[in-house]
TrEMBL record:
UniProt protein name: SDR family oxidoreductase
Keywords carried by this UniProt record: Oxidoreductase
Native species: Streptomyces thinghirensis
Domain Ketoreductase residue range list: 16-199
Family: Belongs to the short-chain dehydrogenases/reductases (SDR) family.
C-alpha cells in the first residue's frame, strides 16, 4: 500500500537544520561555520546582510547550505519573517542557537546609565531571545517528527557580574530563567533546551580584555582569553546529542580568567 508522506517526514534523515542569531561575527559566526562544516544547513540571522554573507562564504564547498536572513531579533515582525524563511526553505527546524546580544555602553555606572541604553540591552538580549525561542518552540511543536533543540548563550555574567554591567548582567541572569522554563515546558514535545555560559572567548567584542579589563577591586588588569573555536565545538557537541539527552548548563571559559574563587 502506498503511503503519502508529509514534507517534514520526507526531511527525516536529511541534513539537520539550524538557526544561528548574531551569525555575522564573533561566537555566532564561529558556531555557524562549525555547524556548516559538520553538514548542517544553517540560517544565518543578523542585522547586517554583508557580514552574514561573509559568514556564508566560509561554508565548505558542497553539501552544507547557508541562508543569510537580515533580522533584528528585538523586532517581532523580523523574527516572524526569519522563521517563515526557515520553514519555506528547509521545511523544519532542529536547532536554534540563541546567540544575538550586546554589552551596551561599557563602563557606565548604574546611576549614569540612560534608560534608552538599558532598554536596548533588554530588547536585544532578553526580549530577542524570547521572541526567537517562542518562534522556534512553535515550529518544533508543530512539525513532524516533533521536537528540536534550543541553546541559549548565557555568558559567565549569568552567574556573576563585572563592574558597571547592570543591564548586561540582569539580562543574562534572566536568560537562565528563560532556559529553565523552556526546558520544562518543552518536555512533552521533545524540545530540549540548554544554556552555554561563555567566558573570555577571543572575539572583536572581547579584544580589550587582553590589554586591560576593570576588576572588582577597581584595578584594571589584562585577562586571558580562549579560542572561539573551542566554544563552537562545545555548542556542536550539545547540538548533536540525541533529543533524549540534554546538556542543561555548560560553562566554557578561559582557564585562568578571574571567575572561580578569587580569580
Amino acid at each position: 500500500m502506498n503511503t503519502v508522506r508529509t514534507a517534514d517526514e520526507e526531511n527525516v534523515g536529511a541534513q539537520k537544520v539550524a538557526v544561528v542569531t548574531g551569525a555575522g561575527s564573533g561566537i555566532g559566526r564561529a558556531v555557524a561555520v562549525e555547524l556548516l562544516a559538520a553538514g548542517w544547513s544553517v540560517t544565518l540571522a543578523g542585522r547586517r546582510v554583508e557580514t552574514l554573507e561573509e559568514t556564508a562564504a566560509q561554508a565548505p564547498a558542497g553539501g552544507a547550505s547557508a541562508l543569510p536572513v537580515r533580522a533584528d531579533v528585538s523586532r517581532p515582525e523580523d523574527v516572524a519573517a526569519l522563521f517563515d524563511a526557515v520553514r519555506d526553505r528547509f521545511g523544519r527546524l532542529d536547532l536554534l542557537f540563541n546567540n544575538a546580544g550586546t554589552f551596551g555602553p561599557g563602563g557606565v555606572p548604574v546611576e549614569e546609565l540612560p534608560y534608552e541604553a538599558w532598554r536596548h540591552v533588554v530588547d536585544t538580549n532578553l526580549n530577542g531571545a524570547f521572541l526567537c525561542a517562542q518562534a522556534a518552540y512553535r515550529q518544533m511543536k508543530e512539525q513532524r517528527p516533533q521536537g528540536g533543540r534550543i541553546i541559549n548563550n548565557g555568558s559567565i555574567s549569568a552567574h556573576t557580574p563585572r563592574p558597571h554591567s547592570v543591564a548586561y548582567t540582569a539580562t543574562k541572569h534572566a536568560l537562565t530563567g528563560l532556559t529553565k522554563s523552556l526546558s520544562l515546558d518543552g518536555r512533552p514535545y521533545g524540545i530540549a533546551v540548554g544554556q552555554i555560559d561563555i567566558g573570555n572567548a577571543a572575539t572583536d567584542m572581547t579584544a580589550g580584555m587582553q590589554t586591560g579589563a576593570l576588576q572588582a577591586n577597581g584595578e584594571t588588569a589584562p585577562e586571558p582569553v580562549m579560542d572561539v573555536a573551542d566554544v563552537a565545538r562545545t555548542v556542536r557537541h550539545m547540538a548533536e546529542l540525541p533529543l533524549e539527552a540534554n546538556v542543561q548548563f555548560a560553562t566554557v571559559m578561559a582557564t585562568a580568567m578571574p571567575y572561580v574563587g578569587r580569580g
